Amino acid sequence: MEENKATRKLRVCVATCNRADYSKLAPIMFGIKANPDEFELEVVVLGSHLIDDYGNTFRMIEQDDFDIGSKLHTIVRGEDEAAMVESVGLALVKLPDVLHRLRPDILVVHGDRFDALALATAAALMNIRILHLEGGEVSGTIDDSIRHAISKLAHYHACCTRTAEQHLIAMCEDHTRILLAGCPSYDKLLAAHHRDDYMDIIRNWLGDNVKEHDYIVALQHPVTTDIKNSIKIYELMLDALISFNKKTLILFPNIDAGSKEMVRVMRKKGVEQHPNFRAVKHVPFEQFIQLVCHAGAMIGNSSCGVREAGAFGTPVINLGSRQTGRETGENVLHVRDADTQNKIYHALELQFGKRYPCSKIYGDGNAVPRILKFLQTIDLDEPLQKTFCFPPVKEWDISQDIDHILETQSALAVDLGGTNLRVAIISMRGKIVKKYTQANPKTYETRMELILKMCTEAVIDAVHLNCRILGVGIGGGIIQHNELIHGSTFCAAELGHIMVSLDGPECMCGSRGCIEAYASGMALQKEAKRLHDEELLEVEGMVDLKKAESVSAIHLINAARLGNHKAEAVLRTAGMALGVGIINILHMVNPSLVILSGVLAAHYQAPVQQVIGQRALTSAQSIQVLTSDLEEPALLGAASMVLDYTTRRIY
């Protein structure tokens, strides 16, 4: 039994749908046929190969001495979107019988055509392994969607470029089943690059008077997602080619929706009778290689222009969006918005007759040996069900967990006030679940110790309140584009420590002249106590301060309201300091609004607005100063830093 397993040939079915994919599949078919001890080849032909209007290109497969096991007429004529869908359906109806009869070990499918999608779908549903050629590439049209869909159905991949390989890996395909092979057609075109009879081929297709590098190859296909525009581009291309007045070999478009309208445009302009044009339905690939290699330029939107032509350094004008996203060499000039004849004509002037360095982006001529070796490594005893290499995720979905649903996502907010320290548990909706307040200690060490103690208490309470703490937020300040500016260490907007005087009062931060040293509640309390000690605070109508527990900023404000000139002077200086500090902010970040919060906000609003009007630059003088109506704006601002960052922002 082991001996039978060792000598068993791999039955490979190669399915080809059109002239373009055959140029990529033929080298592999020749390689398989040349190794009869290893492989058994079956050939299935379908699609436009079997249509007279497209050259009956199945004959070239027969001329290459391949036995065609099945010919499937799968094209529903109409050349519109509905016909493409019906063609896929017809192929799906006919393919099961063929695949059941052939029973291949593996089906080789190429590219991004709708016929290939039908092949991959049928094989996947019939548990036949699939090798997809040229997956992972990007071109910018519906072909991308079809190509990626085939890649998801395929079990193995032979791609052409490193970028395509990375795309497949990003699509969660198993990297051990991806072969970076290069394009099989490059094996043939690089080997046949220099043929002695190339001028005979050129004259056979374009006439005896044509010279090397003095003719154009044109090949434009419809873009099925934008048929109207692609027909317009085709018409403009023909007008530009007629005006350019060079011998041109123009190939009929493929069978996609919109091709019939393109052919009508070509015939309306008399291209088939024009002395400079030769319009053909098909050119054998070996001869087409020579025509592209020695052309003065190639124009259109065929993948051949951005792929094979680069191997020869042939100048290319790529029109429209059909190849957007393809990797290209420097020989390709893109005219993506080909909206005028003059733009296309100018591109022809720039490119015609140039030669560029040969590019090997899509292959080095050794793709077929790599693919054959890859086929030999396929273990038919491996499970047929393919697996996808998704990025790591949690083992369970937290959104479906009842505890997560019932809990409240929250933040711990900390407000380091001059008089009090405050900590609050704040929910995602901005609701203060629980608040903690303690008098602010005098020293830094005891202050930090108290903050940690209050936060610890809040975290313990959060568990009982069914609140999940996402983080701790301290402070806040500048909002730009509806978001808080956090800074590199989440300490941005220490606005209270903007210096407004070089020799002002000492601040708790250790410096002098900070806004906080003039205008904070603690600073005003300090000034109130000084006036009280000097018996300069009390005025008629004030509450007897001797009966009060301690002198506060409120006493200073009340004294000023009752006409105490000393208290008024202190508040005037504080308002001036705050106003000057805010002016500095206005000049730096130019905000649209200033919002003051806290118990002193209402008192400072008018003085700050006045200072801005007197001292700010003209561009900032009209900025309005408002007071916050929020219950606890400082705590809410601090919480928003956490809730904003953990639930929405991406860094």
UniProtKB/TrEMBL annotation:
GO biological process: one example: UDP-N-acetylglucosamine metabolic process
One Gene Ontology MF term: UDP-N-acetylglucosamine 2-epimerase activity
Gene3D superfamilies registered for this protein in UniProt: 3.30.420.40, Glycogen Phosphorylase B
Chain positions recorded as Zn(2+) binding sites: H497, C507, C509, C514
UniProt-listed CDD domains: GTB_UDP-GlcNAc_2-Epimerase
Highest taxon, organism lineage: Eukaryota
Domain UDP-N-acetylglucosamine 2-epimerase: 37-375
InterPro entries registered for this protein in UniProt: ATPase_NBD (IPR043129), ROK (IPR000600), ROK_cs (IPR049874), UDP-GlcNAc_Epase (IPR020004), UDP_GlcNAc_Epimerase_2_dom (IPR003331)
NCBIfam families: NeuC_NnaA
Name listed for the protein in its UniProt record: Glucosamine (UDP-N-acetyl)-2-epimerase/N-acetylmannosamine kinase
Lineage, broadest ranks: Eukaryota, Metazoa, Chordata, Craniata, Vertebrata
